[in-house]
Amino acid sequence: MAVMWSVIFYTVLAVVAFYFILLQPVLKTQKAQRKAVQALQIGDEVVTTGGLIAEVIDVVTPPDSPTEIILEIAPGVRVRALTDAIQKRLTTLEPAEVPGPGPEPATGEVSHTRA
Predict the structure, then answer these.
(1) DSSP 8-state code for residue 21
(2) In sequence order, what are the beta bridge partners of 72?
(3) CA distance 87 to 81
(4) Minimal CA–CA distance to 91: which of 46, 53, 39?
(5) Cα separation of 71 and 52, whole Å?
(6) For the residues 20-38, what does the mean pLDDT come to?
(7) Are β-strands 86-91 and 45-48 bridged in parallel, bridged antiparallel, or unpaired?
C-alpha cells in the first residue's frame, strides 16, 4: 500500500514540476505576445516570425476571418499578414519618456598624451 502512495506522490510531483518549470514560462510568453499584438498601432515597427522587420501600415479586422495587418517591409513594398505572424513589437509611436536631470558633465579637460 505504501508503494502505491509513493508512486502516486512522485507522479503528481513530476506533473507539478513539469508545469512550473516548462509549461508556465511558455504560457506566460505566449500571453505577453498576444497582448503586444492586440496593442499594435499604425506606425509600430514589428518583427515577423519569418524574421522580417516591417512597419504596420493598417490593421484590418474583417467580420468573418482573422485580423490582418498590412506591413511595409520596404518603401512602397506592402504585404498582408495575420496577427499570428507577428513575433514581437520593436518600436511604437508613443512618446518616449523624457529623462530627468542627470549628473552634470565634467568640465575639466583630460589630455591624453604619450610619453
Answers:
(1) I
(2) 55, 78
(3) 12
(4) 46
(5) 10
(6) 85
(7) antiparallel
Is the pLDDT confidence value at 7 over 70?
Answer: yes
Alpha helices (runs of H) in 2-113, residue ranges in sequence order: 2-18, 24-38
Specify whether the CB–CB gap between 48 and 85 falls below 8 A: yes
Per-residue pLDDT tens digits for 53-112? 999 999 888 888 888 899 999 999 999 999 888 888 887 655 555 555 655 555 555 555
Residue whose C-alpha is closest to residue 42's, from 96, 94, 82: 94
* Residue 67: CB atoms within 10 Å: 14
Mean pLDDT of 18-39: 85
User: Are 44 and 92 spatial neighbours (Cβ–Cβ below 8 Å)?
Assistant: yes
DSSP H helices, 1-115, are 2-18, 24-38
User: Looking up cell 520593436, which residue turns up?
Assistant: 90
Please tell me whether the overall predicted TM-score, pTM, comes out greater than 0.85 for this model.
no
Positions of E strands within the chain: 45-48, 53-60, 68-74, 77-82, 86-91
